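Below is how a single chain appears once it has passed through the pipeline. First comes the sequence as given, then the structure the pipeline wrote out for it. We keep one example in the README because the format questions we get most often are answered faster by looking than by reading.
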Amino acid sequence: MLPKNHLTRGRGIYLLPNLFTTGALFSGFYAITSAMGGRYETAVVAIFVAMILDGLDGRVARLTNTQSDFGAQYDSLSDMVSFGAAPALVMYLWAFSSLGKVGLFAAFVHTAGGALRLARFNTQLATGDKNYFQGLPSPAAAAILAGFIWISLEYNYDMELFKYFALGLTVTTGLLMVSNFRYYSFKKVDLKGKVPFIAAIAVMLAIAFVMAQPQTMLFLLFLGYAISGPVITLIMRKRRLQGRKS
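Resulting structure:
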């Protein structure tokens, strides 16, 4: 029989990584409430804050050896709120409320795409290719919508002129999340290893560009990542066909 204190420890959860996950969940929730109050710029910034915290929780768990099944499931539920529901609702309140059922449909496609993407990811944790994601990751999909809203607010775009573009963008992000396109995962990037000095300069310049125009640069960065999926998939398919012919 196991000692009582062993059972008590077994039922506990690791605090540190789950604090970051809770922060990401709160940021997504705060984005929704901010949009309901008409504070759209605050809402999109909150979504990007959720992205940062979501990226940190997994890193912290691996660095401190505190991974757990609970943490993985909690992270997925947090992602569903922050990157599935939050960007769709913010976009709906900002641009689609006058479109009626069409706007509601577009927002739901993104939300459902996020839910299906996360469910598929969880079922493939043990068997999936660690180098690539299948389908656009939900944080990147959320960043595209949040970035577009942020650019439009910054430059005072007339939403009546761009609402159908936003409609198409929202549906596209939802569909890309459930697609079979392969996206580079960056999981093999070694943050503790040594890099050439030129790489450090490149990172510094990239951060400077993003900080100078965060609205434009973040949108273009994640839009480029979304486009990279079909490109990578087509290249890999072409190589497989050439290999079979040879």
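Confidence is low (pLDDT under 50) at residues 1-9.

See the next section for the split statistics.
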